[in-house]
Amino acid sequence: MIFKRFLFRRQQPADTQENQHQKAKAALAAGDRSERLEACRHLLDLVELRNLAEADAEAGVRELAQARYRKLLCGQEIQVPTLTARLAELSHLEDQRTLVQVAAHAKEPELRLAAIQRLTDQAALAACTLDDAATANRFAAAERLRERAPLELVARRIGKRDKNVLRLVRTRIKDLAEEEARPARVQAQFQEICFRLEGLGRFESWSQDRGLLDLLDQQWAAIQDQAEPEWRNRHARDRERFLTAYEAHCQTLAERIDTEKAEAATQATREGLIAEPWAGARGAWFCPGTRTRSPTTPGAGATIPSSSRRRTAGFTALAPAT
Question: Which of 22, 74, 95, 186 suits a disulfide with 106, CB 3.0-4.6 Å?
Answer without folding.
Answer: 74
